[in-house]
């Protein structure tokens, strides 16, 4: 593997990007969804493991953590783990969160918040994270469905009001199509787009190109295929062997190679997986390498 990483902060080898023009982060970040539970239906994980993973991520140079109040299983709540692990927060840490889903009758976040309910959800995040403002808040649109089809104007305008009130520094949108992004942009600046995307799930390549053109962060969720659309790792094995890397590192390095605005947030509750994933920051793939990985 090409090793250009600084030894103590290897995430920095992924390069930097300024979200919204002023929140400077290492491009390889961390997703907190897997801390409370490893699977969508599984048991809660040990909160002390989550705390250890968060602290190690920051030690390794991660300074972009993606979370949400609805990342919880039982009493284990991702936002609270972030606060317990990392307060006092490092000055350069950017915590992104998302609002939109509301808990249904069984507690799972299947309903959509109304514009009027968004302030309460933002306040939940402020309280759980122990901060007086949120760095980046996405409006998370839709359920487990593909992007598109529902208006975002009223909800994004409600978040823009909270931003104007000083509760939020930058706004993003998640699980959107190009029309919904344009709708949001007509109301307030959109600093980041967070959609499902990985080396073989590139349906949003057009949206990524628009983000690259406009300098908008593109944050791929399920970057390791952790969702419904797994990665065919057999297509990554040769490249991994050539660089002495793992297939997960190749999957992340391919994302980093795709665009300077790409900010992967691989999720894990496992320290060894975290270290492996951060190792991808120094893996440089050629365009020919990346072309051979697609499904
Ligand atoms: N905006 C949205 O709607 C949305 C939706 C989903 C997720 N997200 C965000 O995106 C982040 C990333 O998505 P994700 O965490 O669901 O999926 P992911 O990063 O694609 O994959 C995570 C899964 O892969 C495993 N894993 C991680 N590193 C590994 C490694 N090196 N080797 C083998 N297995 C590994 C994890 O298990 P272990 O924990 O056991 O390592 C977990 O099962 C989330 O954490 C969350 O912050 C956003």
Tell me what the structure shows:
The protein is an alpha/beta fold and 295 residues long. 33% of the residues lie in helices and 18% in strands. Helix 1 crosses helix 2. NADP nicotinamide-adenine-dinucleotide phosphate (NAP) binds next to helix 9.
How would you sum up the major sheet?
Answer: 7 strands, parallel
What structural class should be given to the helix and strand makeup? Answer: alpha/beta
Count of DSSP-assigned helices: 10
Distance between the termini: 23 Å
Alpha carbon gyration radius? 18 Å
Strand arrangement within the widest β-sheet reads 3-4-7-10-11-12-13
Helix content: 25-40%
- Low-confidence stretches are 1-5
Q: In what range is the share of β-strand residues?
A: 15-25%
* Distinct small molecules: NADP nicotinamide-adenine-dinucleotide phosphate
Order of helices and strands: EEEHEEEHEEEHEHEHEHEHHHH
- Number-wise, the strands total 13
Outline: globular
**Mean pLDDT across every amino acid position:** 95
Compact description:
With 295 residues, the chain is of the alpha/beta class. 33% of the residues lie in helices and 18% in strands.
Question: What's the helix and strand layout?
Answer:
Layout: E1 16-19, E2 23-26, E3 30-31, H1 47-59, E4 64-66, E5 72-73, E6 76-77, H2 78-86, E7 94-99, E8 101-103, E9 109-112, H3 118-129, E10 134-140, H4 153-164, E11 168-174, H5 178-185, E12 192-196, H6 205-214, E13 217-221, H7 237-243, H8 247-258, H9 271-279, H10 287-291
Parallel strand pairs: 3-4, 4-7, 7-10, 10-11, 11-12, 12-13
Antiparallel strand pairs: 1-2, 5-6, 8-9
Helix pairs in contact: 1-2, 1-9
Bound molecules: NADP nicotinamide-adenine-dinucleotide phosphate.
